[in-house]
Amino acid sequence: MEFRNTLYEKGEGIATITINRPQALNALNEETLVEISSRIEDARQDENTKVIIITGTGDRAFCAGADLKMMEGAGAYKGMRLSQIGQKVTMEVEEAEKPVIAAINGYALGGGLELAMACDIRIASENAQLGQPEVNVGLIPGWGGTQRLPRFVGKGKAKEMIFTGERIDAKTAEKLGLVNRVVPQDRLKSTVREFAAELINKPPIAIALVKQLINTSSETNLNVGLTNEAEAFGVLASTEDFREGVSAFLEKRKPQYKGK
Ligand code: CAA
Pick from 60, 69, 85, 152: CA 20 to 30 A from residue 218's CA? Predict the structure, then answer.
């Protein structure tokens, strides 16, 4: 497969996927979605990769959404298919067993915000602007925004943002819980890498299971969620990593986790 719209770097336990269409503010056409899907799958399969970062090229945009040139004159069937493809990719990001961090280096609009919301952690630069402006072109968010945005900011704020299409700045997004942290633009890359580096040494099975439990917490009732939690707890109690964690604690040394 030829990759023309994304860059991909792997090393030191981190895989970085960079959307590379600066001429379109990193807007996502179908080809780019397929590339992201393939990069995610590679990072999932690669046992040396512990953390995945998604970002955009340049200092203007993480991603300005679905490519409106691709959407132009789509028609009902193509429109539905484009929605389904984007939903599939955002689910792949959300369901990857490894932590995925969005490094939001500018505009995160429409499908760009939807991609960022599918990530586990969002770190934004001070110049970032976030929003779901689809209504301004007669659409609605189609890659999960109607479902994920209210889970972050509540139904009222989500409706306000989607009805108006307004953009909010990074600090406002942080206050709303939509981004985890805001840093000056020149510190975004280093902050994200430091955060990723902290996660690399954590026990992979515990991270994978807690990600799954938190992701499903809003879909399950409390009793089912607690049963799932207890089962995961039991699974973890039987891992080599748990034995290593306790031994390391008692021997006052750093644990070496193997994901077993
Ligand atoms: N699709 C295709 N091209 C885009 C794009 C998009 N979503 N966003 C920006 N671009 C292109 C522009 O067409 C322009 O290209 P040209 O130089 O060839 O004209 C280039 O990127 C730079 O953009 P601007 O000149 O518009 O830059 P600006 O600084 O004046 O404005 C902006 C920046 C506010 C982000 C503005 O570009 C904008 O509003 N973009 C559209 C954002 C949007 O509506 N996103 C939602 C798309 S629909 C969607 O995502 C549906 C879904 O839920 C999946």
Answer: 85
Residue nearest atom 4 in ligand 1 by C-alpha distance: 24
**Banded model confidence at residue 112, pLDDT cuts 50, 70, 90:** very high
203-247 pLDDT per residue, tens: 999 999 999 999 999 889 999 999 999 999 999 999 999 999 999
The beta strands (E) that lie in the chain are given as 6-11, 14-19, 51-56, 61-63, 100-104, 107-109, 121-125, 129-131, 167-169, 181-183
Burial class (CB in 10 A: 0-12, 13-18, 19+), 79: middle
Residue 86 beta carbon below 6 angstroms from any ligand 1 atom: yes
198 CB-contact burial (10 Å; exposed 0-12 / middle 13-18 / buried 19+): exposed
Q: Could you tell me if 50 and 13 are in contact, meaning their C-beta atoms sit under 8 angstroms apart?
A: yes
Calculate the CA 227 to chain-centre distance.
27
- 62 and 106 in contact (C-beta within 8 Å)? yes
User: Which ligand 1 atom is the nearest neighbour of the CA of 165?
Assistant: 44
Ligand 1 pocket member 197 (CB < 6 A): no
Residues belonging to the active site: 114, 134
Q: Are 218 and 98 in contact (CB under 8 A)?
A: no
Q: Which of 68, 139, 143 has most ligand 1 atoms within 8 Å of its beta carbon, as the pocket-test mutant?
A: 68
Ligand 1 within 6 A of CB of 204: no
